[in-house]
Amino acid sequence: CDVCVCLQGELSFEGDQLVEGGKLSNNTDYREVRQYHSPSHLLRFYFLTRIYSNYVESVLADFQTGLQPDVVIVNSCVWDISRYGSNSIQQYRENLDTFFTRLNEVLLPECLVIWNMAMPLGKKIKGGFL
Hints:
By secondary structure, the chain is of the alpha+beta class. It contains three helices and five strands; from the N terminus they run βββαβααβ. The protein has helices at about 55-65, 80, 90-105; strands at about 15-20, 30-35, 40-45, 70-75, 110-115. Strands 1-2-3 form a three-stranded antiparallel beta sheet, with no helix packed on it. The chain has a two-stranded parallel sheet with strand order 4-5. A hairpin with a 4-residue loop joins strand 2 and strand 3 (about 40-45). The protein is globular. The relative contact order is 0.14.
């Protein structure tokens, strides 16, 4: 297709598989794990609503006991600062520190971590993208 866009929650897109979650929700407990596997590649996508949480810790624990990633691409900000109350910006800063400390403890030194910055936000955040 000329323009392919994965819809949240669909069972398969371009050869990947929905592994966990995918039940559409605009809540902070939304989960979606997708995986693409070929003879030479294994790609996993974890939808996070917060940069650090018990759920993120469970993903990191999977890295410790399972396959170690070669590359981790992280994008977190919008949900962190818009859905967790009046203290969310301070919590986001603290969670960033904890997240990167945990990455250093869990990942192999040769793993490349890419931080993908979120787009700037307006003064009033409303609505969702689901």
